[in-house]
Amino acid sequence: MTFEEAKDKFIHTWGTLATQWGINRSMAQLHALLLIAPEALATEDVMEQLQISRGNASMNLRDLMDWGLIYKQLKPGERREFFIAEKDIWKVARQVAKERRRREITPVIEVLNELKSIDADTPEAHEFQRVMVGLSGVVGFADNTLNAVIKAEENWLMGQFLKVFR
Amino acid sequence: MTFEEAKDKFIHTWGTLATQWGINRSMAQLHALLLIAPEALATEDVMEQLQISRGNASMNLRDLMDWGLIYKQLKPGERREFFIAEKDIWKVARQVAKERRRREITPVIEVLNELKSIDADTPEAHEFQRVMVGLSGVVGFADNTLNAVIKAEENWLMGQFLKVFR
DNA sequence: CATTTCTTTTAAAATATTTTGAAATTACAA
DNA sequence: TTGTAATTTCAAAATATTTTAAAAGAAATG
Hints:
The structure is a homodimer of 166-residue chains. Helix content of chain A is 70%, strand content 7%. Chain A has 166 residues and is mainly alpha-helical. Chain A folds into 2 domains: 3-85, Arc Repressor Mutant, subunit A (Orthogonal Bundle), CATH 1.10.10; 89-163. In chain A, helix 2 (25-36) packs across helix 4. The longest helix of chain A has 29 residues, at 123-151. The radius of gyration of chain A is 21 Å and the shape is elongated. Chains A and B meet through helix 1, helix 5, helix 6 and helix 7 of A and helix 1, helix 5, helix 6 and helix 7 of B. Chain B binds a DNA duplex (30 and 30 nucleotides) through helix 4.
């Protein structure tokens, strides 16, 4: 496999994986492209390389910045903006963990706490409460795991732990 | 909040959360409904309670069975099929972890291994390879975490570990 | 078997999401 | 300022996904 083939395969694979996780293809492919780019790219570059429109590029570049996965880079003497991805992959993972926790886990924990506290006067209500308590446990585990990723400055500690389960 | 309100809120919340994770609303709501149902439900019941068509119900019930999250239950003397959800929430979590690992992580690991092994003769190719190696690490961590969930028969061990990171 | 009851399949419709392209806006330089 | 290059916005178009409804298929019953 040549480098060009590998690059295409990576961008394509990343785009496909992303859709399974509720992330749109353009955004994932943009991220993939910037991840492997040795230099910062201008909007025009990504438009051309991924064959997407200016509007699409602009919106998804912004979303990626909101996620903290890419940065704007200003080049002296250049008017247009360049974009560069965060290259420390563990930092990327921490960032994604942080955002997903904030956007998805935290709100769910709150709803579950609310639902847990109805009074269980009927059998149905009792069963319901049992399920809510169980779910709180699992969601709490997910929350802790994301926290583990977020807080692990080094990853050897996590590595040590995970050996236990192999 | 009454039990009925809580029930509706749960089904609705679960449906919303699911779409953020690339799972369709009907499937998530079906699962939510069955999770909190104290008795097995027939197709008609879920059609009525969620206001969805027979075909929709049929397809998503099958998908849920494929994920190992619900079971068919045959009642003596009854011709139609009833469905009951796996009620052990940790078992549900293990099942989801197992399936996502099989469907999403394992294939990505293979692609990354393939892409890691191109020869890095140019600076671009070298950068590319560096990223692939990094990603392998992160994906490997995800794989290990899912394995931890899958293999943890008891969850106290995981609980012990996670205290370290709090 | 034929009939009834229930389930599954599938093509079309409905809905939701993503992408485009052009206009509006912004930012900078002259 | 004014003009130009670049970015952002947003309504419309394209695409993808989900849902429906009706037909086909199975399974049980008499």
